[in-house]
Amino acid sequence: MTTLLCSRNHKVNMQEITNADVKEGSHPTHVDITTNHRESKLELFGFDSLVNILGLKSMTGDGEQNQAPSSPRDGEDIAITIGQPKINEVKSGTLMGVFVPCLQNIMGIIYYIRFSWIVGMAGIGESLLVVFICGLCTFLTAISLSAIATNGAMKGGGPYYLIGRALGPEVGVSIGLCFFLGTAVAGALYVLGAVETFLGALPGAGIFRETVTQVNGTTIGPVSSPSLHDLQVYGIVVTIILCFIVFGGVKMINRVAPAFLIPVLFSLFCIFIGIFVAKTDRPAEGITGLSLKTFKDNWTPEYQNTNNAGVPDPKGDVSWNFHALVGLFFPAVTGIMAGSNRSASLKDTQRSIPVGTLAATLTTTGLYLISVLFFGALATRTKLLTDRYLTATIAWPSPAIIYIGIILSTLGAALQSLTGAPRLLAAIANDDILPVLNYFKVADGNEPHLATLFTAFICISCVVIGNLDLISPTITMFFLLCYAGVNLSCFLLDLLDAPSWRPRWKFHHWSLSLLGAFLCIMIMFLISWSFTIVSLALVSLIYYYVSLKGKAGDWGDGFKSAYFQLALRSLRSLGANQVHPKNWYPIPLIFCRPWGKLPENVPCHPKLADFANCMKKKGRGMSIFVSILDGDYHERAEDAKEATKQLGTYIEYKRCEGVAEIVVAPSMSAGFQGIIQTMGLGNLKPNIVVMRYPEIWRRENLTEIPATFVGIINDCIVANKAVVIVKGLDEWPNEYQRQYGTIDLYWIVRDGGLMLLLSQLLLTKESFESCKIQVFCIAEEEDDAEGLKADVKKFLYDLRMQAEVIVITMKSWDLQAEGGAPQDESVEAFTAAQERIAKYLIDMKESAKRNGNQLMADGKPVIVNEHQIEKFLYTTLKLNSTILRYSRMAAVVLVSLPPPPVNHPAYFYMEYMDLLVENVPRLLIVRGYRRDVVTLFT
């Protein structure tokens, strides 16, 4: 993450800030007061305005945007300012982007030419059970999908992207490749369904002819079914034609795809009209109309053997039971991933995917349940078993409507499969995990032609098999594996509940995801234990191959988060690399320096433990409480042990998860430098230093505090630790004191999102859960305040954070224009600070005369620029006045911590800070570090 930390004397453009390569932690350089350029309004902070630092304009499509990396590699970083992937095509809404594709993929060939047959074979009772089990499985999966999909921005790859980012690249690639195979094979299923329907409607079009006359051992007349060779020949031709259409581009397919759904909806309307107008033996023999007697006769199952075409035959080779029917019907409820596969082309993925997917799932499941009752009461069992096109037979006014609807719906679904599968394979290849897939890589915006050819080859190979009922269970296994992966991903993320887990879809629970995963595995074994073993073995082999040959990638997956919660067991797995923002946990180092007296036998300020608990989500995390004993280690080692025991007991009493450490050192500064360098192990080192603001230093004339306080802040900057300083610690609420009002953030500098994350963690506590968050952004007068507000709101929305955004415009620093000093209630503090600094300067100059005209403070040479000092004082005064104006009634205020200026006396910095916190009762002063702690992406 590159951040501009040096003072600027002129307004820089966004590109300069984005490309700035100045290391964070550097101090403000000397300011030339003779410059004619406009100076920054917040001079002390050493930053330009928020609108420039964040580069938020690039996040809403204005100007150039940074392309999000497909997967973070070692050494890469995802900044919180990174933009959404650049998309040129028109974005789709919930209806056309999710609901229609899902409905088109779910409603397919199984319903038209197999559903009535399933009712005849299983009876009404067990058919309802088949539909309920399959529908429940997809419904629970849709809930898990909704939770994961709303936990951040999604890229291409659909379920593969979600599973991979949640369970890691090995599991993601393994299940993703199986889902690719399932999608490609599903294309063959749809092609065969279209061809079979066409040949059933026009028997004369068949090149070969097959006639079956034996049904249940009796001759009831010829029952024709398409020849296997006809299915193969026509299926290959249709697949090749569809591939040519796919090569025409996805835009053309998306443009005509909704048209395929209209015949489906119209055909459903005709079917139900036909059901209600049907009478005995009309429109065909075996049709009874809606009859209670027929309903009772068809309630129980009647499983039989059939030939390969599905026609009942006592000598048939295919034996059917409840398990086999579940496998045959399950493809009729698949297709719920169609919306997530289009995530890159949706206007609002976090709203469209849950609403559209669940609406399509509930709609189709309800339709299936109603259809079971109607079909079971409409025709005799013999008719249900022998008339494969019962839906066409009963359709009003003509069977041709159903044939046309079936053909168009299946061809549309086949197009979706032949379009989605290559893009899924290309997404896996582009992540550069498996080298063998490098041939299928495509550049952004290009069509995956090679992946399309490979998909067509798989589809044609399955078409050659020619048997719809043999292909269907194979697809079922691959889809169930994918659904199980989605459920397990949500289960893991929900169970770990890391700070980055904030899905907008709230109606989920880890138990539902676990039930969904269990149901997927159960259905797999119900269908065929042998197919299940083969499928799991295939996934295991791919997983093993990826582990051996694949390239490492840190996607912030759930397993890494689990390692943090099982730190002692998984420390070696975490390694020493930087933590991904999704796995970032606050590990506060609580500096127990009281800056004053504490009651006897109280080793730490009581409210520090309360505040430490507020930095954890549901108690997860570890705090390290440290204190320093002055003296020689050999002499005070036993005192340190006793003090550690006492502090540990106190932490347990305060019910704060953490450890106690006491360090013996010659001085406070030396002790803290040792702590900051050595405390922790691996990635379990503390990343935030928390301490109390020394409010008493002037009141009790503790002249050693400024140097110690400033030294600690500088040590944290050098050690790359975040800093949180609590002002008003005595007033900090405990867990029983409910707060109301707002949590106000004065977001002045880019801090990796730490201030935003702290505010979200505060809301998870009972004492602050009734509060609302307000984010105050500082802008120049000529800046586009409304544009900045919209950008920040969009940014917070993508981070799944609820907050009100308020933009405050400030004038640049111009003391002369203000008539010498601002006129507000803090003017007395401003004037007093000026007088104290002036007196301190006089004392320094008198001392310098005695020491060779070298200005010294805190034992170090310093450089004094009186004009710059006045600007720093004015900066803090302006910010303090703004806080008092807008946040006087806030429950807590968070503001950025300015770095101590180089070569300034520590006394001056304490004056700046005192002026900043003046009259603010409860304040958190926050400084981030070089890593981001929040991310836009799931």
Question: What would your notes on this structure say?
Answer:
The strands form four sheets. Strands 7-6-5-8-9-16-15-10-11-12 form a ten-stranded mixed beta sheet, sandwiched between helices. A two-stranded antiparallel sheet has the order 1-2. It has two domains: 98-217 and 224-549, Amino acid/polyamine transporter I, CATH 1.20.1740; 588-812 and 826-927, Rossmann fold. It starts with 13 loop residues before the first helix and ends in an 11-residue tail after the last strand. It has 938 residues and is of the alpha/beta class. The chain is built from 31 helices and 16 strands.
Number of strands: 16
Helix coverage percent: 40-55%
Quick one: biggest sheet? 10 strands, mixed
Count structural domains. Answer: 2
Q: pLDDT below 50 for ≥5 consecutive residues: which ranges?
A: 1-40, 47-88, 213-221, 813-823
- The rounded distance between the terminal residues' Cα atoms is 19 Å
Find the CATH superfamily of the largest domain: Amino acid/polyamine transporter I
Query: What would the average pLDDT be, to the nearest integer?
Result: 77
Radius of gyration: 35 Å
Shape: elongated
Number of helices: 31
Q: What is the CATH topology descriptor of the largest domain?
A: Amino acid/polyamine transporter I
Produce the secondary structure layout.
Layout (H helix, E strand, L loop, with lengths): L13 H5 L31 H5 L39 H13 L2 H5 L1 H35 L9 H9 L1 H33 L8 E6 L2 E8 L2 H20 L2 H28 L14 H6 L7 E2 L11 E2 L2 H8 L8 H4 L7 H28 L4 H6 L3 H5 L4 H32 L18 H17 L2 H29 L13 H18 L1 H21 L8 H8 L1 H8 L13 E4 L14 H9 L8 E8 L2 H21 L4 E8 L2 H11 L9 E5 L12 H14 L3 E6 L14 E6 L6 H10 L8 E9 L4 H14 L5 E7 L16 H24 L5 E2 L2 E2 L4 H21 L5 E5 L9 H12 L5 E5 L11
Parallel strand pairs: 5-6, 5-8, 6-7, 8-9, 10-11, 10-15, 11-12, 15-16
Antiparallel strand pairs: 1-2, 3-4, 9-16, 13-14
